[in-house]
Amino acid sequence: MDIQWDDLRVFLAVARTESLSGAGRQLRLDPATVGRRMQRLETAVGAPLFAKSPQGYALTVDGQRLLDHAERAEQAVTGAAEEVGGQAGQLTGQVRIGAPDGCANYLLPQICTRLSEANPGLEIQVLALPRVVNLSKREADMAITVSAPVSGRLTVQKITDYHLHLAAHRSYLRGGPPIRTLDDLTQHPIIGYIPDMIYDKELDYLSEAGIEQVTLGSNSVMVQLHMIRQKGGIGIVHDFALPFAPGMRKVLADSFSLTRSFYLIRHPDDRRVERLNRVAEAVATELRAEVARLEAEAAA
């Protein structure tokens, strides 16, 4: 059986994206070339590896068996490249980090910049999505989430707690009705998530304040923050985002606040890849410190 690593690499991309075009984009190959590589691999193993349907390319039973071996081969090749090519302990290669947009906008830019400066050979990509990142399909090498997964073969590490408060622009507060209790919020427009697009129960902030209706909504916390800065009303804001928004003020800070947590999620097989272990440790350490620094600045 003559199986080439390059064909296994293409096989993994098709399995993870479930399409020839998706694999082609990932590997910078045209879909026709991806298709020929898969035909060559299927000839080499003597069995069909994918079943094509309107939904895409799904692994057959034989394809699923090959997937386990291909992933182990990928880890071996990656580990060997790191061991041979590492320079002076620096991190190299490409790492993709998935994160919710609050973390991706207000925390990861400075963290990734520091990592890049310390490791010039490291290419860092931040995937900011309004949904949970799928590590099984290798959308990212690791993901930061706001809740720990309850199923699947994943490793979970709690990074840190963070805090949120009601907030509004000071100009809005000067011109609006006074706010002394949560009941007074009924006299103000509320800014928050689009209710039917809340993909994680931990993001359902407003329900904890007893608020059912959103006047201005978005699936992005960054858009919500800009709506609040434009004096559109009152919303719930991450404390670590407040230093980036001059003019914002906490509302009912003494009587209402929320605590949430960040978790680092990884594919269990990646624990054998030292480069990813070191990046994960650095990201967790830096994220913990950055949340503490920005929250202290917001409190001051």
From TrEMBL:
It holds the Pfam family LysR_substrate. PROSITE patterns: HTH_LYSR. Residues 1-60 form the HTH lysR-type domain. Keywords: DNA-binding, Transcription, Transcription regulation. GO terms for molecular function: DNA binding; DNA-binding transcription factor activity. The keyword DNA-binding applies. The keyword Transcription applies. Belongs to the LysR transcriptional regulatory family. This is LysR family transcriptional regulator.
